[in-house]
Specification:
213 residues, alpha/beta, Rossmann fold, 6-stranded mixed sheet, globular, binds guanosine-5'-triphosphate, binds magnesium ion
């Protein structure tokens, strides 16, 4: 666990760590659009509701590390809940999304937070995202309300727009950074207890590779 990462040459397309991330929230808040904007820099105004679950992979370079992101895009529709919650386990980070022009999606945030608590690993990091901030005229959720709720839940908070490409990259980069910080903290505390049996458990929980940044 504490050994240095293997040396790789410049041409190596490999990665130092892999982070599994999940995007959750009500149907139509813009989860798929957010991922497409981030991974492909594309946007479409047509709504094709996700069936079950899908994923994209993107590699980012943060803190001198090549980090491969496996980003799972879940269906918001209730009928897929059993399928989607099965993917929470092992996720290192979540984007919990609502739509600033949709009251119901904001009212559901608490329930989604409970789902994370129930089905995910305790150390998973969460960012609350108020999407569609381009729709200022249709806004129903004040920025302060989003901020207050995220403070209560202990999550970080961003408003964003997949359509106008506002804060999309920033949200993912922040999530990667908070996961790196958490991993470093856990590694430090594990190293302080050299005979700790939890090391084995920690190893298996981080089978995708811990980030030492
Ligand atoms: P499910 O797959 O059913 O859970 O929905 P989803 O959360 O993946 O929503 P999706 O990304 O499919 O977007 C729903 C609708 O909102 C589509 O018509 C998108 O074009 C639109 N949309 C997504 N993001 C934005 C945004 O930032 N601004 C605006 N104005 N529309 C958006
Ligand atoms: Mg979708």
């Amino acid at each position: 666990l504490t050994s240095p990462p293997p040396q790789r040459d410049a041409a190596d397309q490999n990665f130092d760590s892999m982070f599994k991330l999940l995007i959750i929230g009500n149907s139509s808040v813009g989860k798929t659009s957010f991922l497409f904007r981030y991974a492909d820099d594309s946007f479409t105004s047509a709504f094709v509701s996700t069936v079950g679950i899908d994923f994209k992979v993107k590699t980012v370079f943060r803190n001198n590390k090549r980090i491969k992101l496996q980003i799972w895009d879940t269906a918001g529709q209730e009928r897929y809940r059993t399928i989607t919650t099965a993917y929470y386990r092992g996720a290192m980070g979540f984007l919990l999304m609502y739509d600033i022009s949709n009251q119901e999606s904001f009212s559901s945030v608490q329930d989604w937070a409970t789902q994370i608590k129930t089905y995910s690993w305790d150390n998973a990091q969460v960012i609350l995202v108020g999407n569609k901030c381009d729709l200022e005229d249709d806004r129903l959720i004040a920025t302060e309300d989003g901020q207050r709720l995220s403070d209560e839940l202990g999550f970080e908070f961003f408003e964003a727009s997949a359509k106008d490409n506002i804060n999309v990259k920033q949200v993912f980069e922040r999530l990667v950074d908070v996961i790196c910080v958490k991993n470093a903290e856990m590694e430090a505390s594990a190293n302080q207890q050299p005979n700790n049996k939890d090391l084995d458990i920690k190893d298996s929980q981080e089978s995708h590779g811990a980030c030492a940044c």
